[in-house]
Write a structure and sequence with these properties.
This protein has 326 residues and is mainly alpha-helical. Among the domains are: 36 residues, no CATH class; 127 residues, Alpha Horseshoe (Serine Threonine Protein Phosphatase 5, Tetratricopeptide repeat). A two-stranded antiparallel ribbon has the order 1-2. The chain has a two-stranded antiparallel ribbon with strand order 3-4. Helix 9 runs parallel beside helix 11.
């Protein structure tokens, strides 16, 4: 019963307001607003749409090209109209609906004349959605934009990366997907996508950005999980690979600084764990953590603090046969 009510609400929203927008007609198995039915020839509607695009009258352009796709579906000119329909919707900021229209355009022809431009628009849509643009509820243009578009952005990034696999647009899509995954704290997946960009576009500026992205992932990850020893080793490997591929890159300094920060955060976590054990009256455990920090990273900024604590706990250090710092 409740499902039926919800369905009725959706239908009401989709078809509501008929007194404002005119009667609906049933055509080709679907309901269409009467204003979407052609009153002119396909050529005249098409020219009106093109003129509206040139004048940046996006709503007028949308209406004209929409009329063509409804009333002249299958005509050769309708293929271009389908593309320009997507363009109009993009300019109207209806990004998710625009993406659907571009997908429809790609499916309607085996040799799309606007192939690269479609993927360029799709990439821009994915970037808008990744940045926080919202989608229409249930994908219906007549419903409000209340759904986050980030999951759809990931799908579109994949589509662009596979649609033009050797194009710069694919590289940009891979980097965009990885950045979004990093934002969502899906670090392992983000690193995999960055590595895919490096493999597919070796030696390129895109690969250089991917190395930086991987470094940033490890830095973020260690900030949230400072005890993650694997992140340190993998961050160092990433730096070595970057140095091998781009020995003169100025970005080496940034990545090297990130690796140093990863180490510092890990040592700080060991030191703070030692302090915690002291507060818990477990001095021997505290000594072990201080000693571990000193052994692994003797030149870190935290090292002097660890030495000082071991000196204060020298009795327990001697019992554990932990050498006192000089």
């Amino acid at each position: 019963m409740k499902g039926g009510i919800r369905f009725g609400i959706v239908i009401g929203l989709l078809l509501g307001g008929t007194s404002l927008h005119g009667a609906y007609l049933f055509k080709n198995g679907r309901f269409y607003n009467q204003k979407d039915i052609a009153t002119l020839s396909i050529e005249e509607h098409y020219q009106r749409g093109i003129d509206a695009l040139k004048a940046q009258q996006w709503d007028v352009a949308f209406q004209q090209f929409h009329i063509i796709t409804v009333s002249f579906d299958g005509a050769s000119l309708a293929q271009d109209a389908q593309y320009y329909l997507g363009v109009s919707l993009y300019e109207l900021h209806d990004y998710d609906i625009a993406n659907k229209e571009f997908t429809t355009y790609l499916k309607k022809t085996n040799a799309p004349a606007h192939l690269e431009d479609v993927y360029r628009y799709k990439l821009a849509i994915a970037q808008k959605l990744a940045a926080g643009a919202f989608c229409h509820l249930f994908g219906f243009n007549s419903l409000p934009k209340l759904q986050t578009g980030r999951s759809q952005a990931l799908e579109i990034f994949d589509e662009v990366a596979s649609g033009l696999p050797n194009h710069d647009l694919a590289a940009t899509a891979l980097l965009g997907k990885a950045k979004l995954l990093k934002y969502e704290e899906e670090y392992a997946e983000a690193i995999e996508v960055y590595q895919a960009a490096i493999r597919r576009f070796p030696g390129s500026a895109f690969a250089l950005k991917a190395y930086q992205g991987i470094s940033a992932c490890f830095l973020d990850e260690i900030q949230r999980q400072p005890q993650n020893v694997d992140a340190i080793a993998l961050a160092e490997i990433n730096l070595k690979e970057l140095t091998k591929d781009f020995p003169e890159a100025k970005e080496l300094k940034v990545v090297d600084t990130n690796v140093a920060s990863v180490k510092e955060l890990h040592v700080k976590a060991l030191y703070e764990t030692g302090l915690l054990y002291e507060r818990m009256s477990q001095p021997k455990a505290a000594v072990l953590y201080y000693h571990l920090a000193l052994t692994k990273f003797p030149t870190s900024s935290i090292a002097p603090l660890c030495r000082e604590r071991i000196k204060e706990l020298s009795t327990y250090a001697e019992e554990l046969h932990v050498a006192l710092p000089s």
